[in-house]
What we know:
By secondary structure, the protein is an all-alpha fold.
Amino acid sequence: MGLNIDRLRSGLRDYQNHLERHVQKLNSSFNSLQSRFMALSREYDGRAAEEFRSSWSKTAAWFKDYIKQTRKLSKILDERLKYLENTNV
């Protein structure tokens, strides 16, 4: 059984498209949450607020890193797809 380049390209393209939609939705949702957090942060005070801000800060850093790494993966997929498109097998 040989390697089917067309099927590989199609699968990678599909995966990349899903990944891009995923990161766009995640980024949009994160930005919305960030805006809500900022509004809450202006009104919320005290020890509980400080703990919440600390937790949110860690969560926000995780989201930003996840989005960054997902974009890197998408870029790698794009490079591989371009290579496969130039492969005549």
